[in-house]
Amino acid sequence: MINKKVDNISEALKGVSDNMTFMFGGFGLSGIPENAIADLVKRNIKGLTCISNNAGVDDFGLGLLLHQKQIKKMVSSYVGENDEFERQMLSGELDVELIPQGTLAERCRAAQAGFPAIYTPAGYGTEVAEGKETREFDGKMYVLEHAFKADFAFVKAWKGDAAGNLIFKGTARNFNPVMCGAAKITVAEVEELVPVGELDPNQIHVPGIFVQRIFKGETYEKRIEQLTVRQKS
Amino acid sequence: MTVDMLDKNGIAKRIAKEVQDGYYVNLGIGIPTLVANYVRDDIEVEFQSENGVLGMGPFPFEGEEDADIINAGKQTITTLPGASFFDSAMSFAMIRGQHVDLTILGAMEVSENGDIANWKIPGKMVKGMGGAMDLVASAENIIVAMMHTNRAGESKLLKNCSLPLTGVGCVKKIVTNMAVIEVTPKGFKLLERAPGVSIEDIKKCNRGRADY
Q1: Which class would CATH give A9-114+148-216?
Q2: Residue B30: is it exposed, middle or buried by C-beta count within 10 angstroms (0-12/13-18/19+)?
Q3: Interface contact flag, B89 A178, Cβ < 8 Å
Q4: How does pLDDT run across A88-111, given as a tens digit for each residue?
Q5: A77 CA to chain B: closest CA distance, Å?
Q6: Which of B85, B137, B169 has its CB closest to that of A170?
Q7: Which Pfam families match (chain A) (predicted)?
Q8: Which residues of chain A have a pLDDT value below 50?
């Protein structure tokens, strides 16, 4: 067994510095690497390019990095629910690249899987395709989208082991598996770090080969963005 | 003159009639979400949410919500027996690979050739397209749910969209508070009128080529 376990968060994030490109798993606030984000806030490194489906809310998730003006550029599919984000974007302080959600996922997966680029029909004929190569296959038009290049991928899983194997829970899975192995270094934080051998190999979502460092997150707030319930009748 | 137009639930109820037995359906945010409330209970349908769940159920009871189980609108949800979770790449494989049978989404504008705009108002609203561009570029069967006119009373059915596009030539059917309209090679074709709405009322509101 190749050991990926690191003793503390400081070791997990060793090597992060100004002007790097990071990937962050999560959809909304679900499945975000809360502990890695908290540590990046403490380190206060700047000029970051962040690839993440969303940009958090004003006081949580990537919103915390935005608040300290640590982010130079966001690559996302949807950035509502964040006033500070909107302010920085409209004032020109923050560079924003909005791309289709499936394209975001596939550009991560391409990096993970060794494809330099992929063709997708998403965005053809829209401003998303401007300046990009397009090509016809069987009578339908597609846009060439390149694999991401990132320094670190920060992902969050439910359970993991020292071999780096990961299991996710519910829709907190989202972008996390496709970001594993899509950057030079993948740092996985987990709610439960279990002894090697405890996870059933049949149930592993991401094999440890895609993960370089794994640690147990100290705490998880797991904030709910839109609490929606029905009444018992 | 007052016209007896449908409300949001009325639009959702009408769209629910388009949902057939055995369909996998993706519902957008807003009116489309309401469609789930009106699907006949004698047919089997599974709802897909692009953040990674198939077999979505109703909202949870208070106290039973789980931060790890949400829909694409970030609302807490439940799952039904037979449900599954998956990552974002697999989710869009379902969408791009045309495994999802029906996509229902909202729009700001639709043009007579089926172009749709629903993600950006330059200078005013830039929240992003989320999964909408992937959905409209791939789905064979797209129904737009929207009000017929905007807040200023101007038609949202146009000759050409004025807003940045989400997709080109993709919308097949539009259900509004006034009418059900098909997008054909000849432009908009009126299929149904809402109760109490006349052809004249609809004509006044359309800007694209239309066949009544």
Answers
A1: alpha beta
A2: middle
A3: yes
A4: 988 899 999 999 999 999 999 999
A5: 5
A6: B85
A7: CoA_trans
A8: none
